[in-house]
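hi!! sorry for the late reply, been swamped w classes. u asked for the two structures so here they r. pasted raw, havent cleaned anything up. first the sequence of the first protein and right below it the tokens
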Amino acid sequence: MVGKLLSSVRAAAGIADIADMGVVFNGTYGYNDCSLRLRIESLNGLFFLCIEDRLSRGAAFVNTKVVKWPYSQTGAGELDAVLQDLRCVAGAPGNACLTDRRGAVGRLFDKMTGRKYLGEYTFASPLNEDRPRTVDATVTASKAGLMVTLAECRKSSTSIQASMPLDAIPTIINALQAWRQ
């Protein structure tokens, strides 16, 4: 029932589903189960990549976040810039794509909380639109392994953050390449 309601609201808003690749990753994120769903949709002549991150711990805890950004005006298959961004993140921590933009306060906070910060990467693929947005990937290390947090930020708005294991990024790349074929 909720799915039908959501579909009718999306259709009324003019959002068209181009491709639904389904769940492309199932794994763990700390003590939580993580599943990633991937889809492409269009709105007002723009094509958006949507990464839906669902964290759960049994039936008691479910948290779903959707990070999406416009990547093309010409066609859904124009994924080269997106794939390049994802490859930079997938190559972490040993590549030159990651930078450290933290100030002294950020470094102090990370040291006090025990967070092992490995770097950030700002995606080049989001298109400039009437409400510009940025997508940043922050790579950290923890006892559970390497993690990446994707953050979609709009100017004068809040950000949406989706956290996942770094191992999920190559599966996203593979799913997009397989869909584009």
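now the second protein. again sequence first, tokens right under
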Amino acid sequence: MVGLATLVLVIGPHRIDQSPWYAGLVILPLLILVAAQLFAFRCPHCGERAVRGHYGYWVASDTCAKCLRDFEGASLSDDQLAEKLIAEDNPELAQKLRQRRLEEEELRKRAPTDAQAAAILEGMLKERLEGVEAWVRDMQRLYALKQTDKADLVAAEVSLNKLQADLRWCMGLTSGPAQRSRLTCA
């Protein structure tokens, strides 16, 4: 905006009335700002505009206001993003979440060939299933009261379906040695 004011002073208000080219020079920066806000500078993860409203040109941020992920750098999973956000307020809890996530990833790798790892993973998933089912019930109740969006309810249901599919996969691994050998041989 300072550049626009400077341009108007350099050209002079009396010249702007004389030629449409001078008026174009004054209007062009405004058009570029609006176009940049509408079409450029989008989050690579969710597509949200990075510049939102007139304050967006003055307040620079490295993270998206919608999905909270960094615009540049490695793309984080939802669990890693949660760990990062929690670490700002409670580093000990974030460390516990990270350890649990890494332990679960290791169990997922070992589960197809190790019955004990599959049983431990099944226990972890069953424990988590209770909390996710309660979350879905809460979201359904809040949606019925019109206190939440349909997208929040759908996200909860998708998480529940994914967890149930993971649990079915894990239970298939622990059902017996014949099933386990069938799944690991390809």
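hope this helps!! also noticed smth abt the second:
Confidence is low (pLDDT under 50) at residues 178-183.
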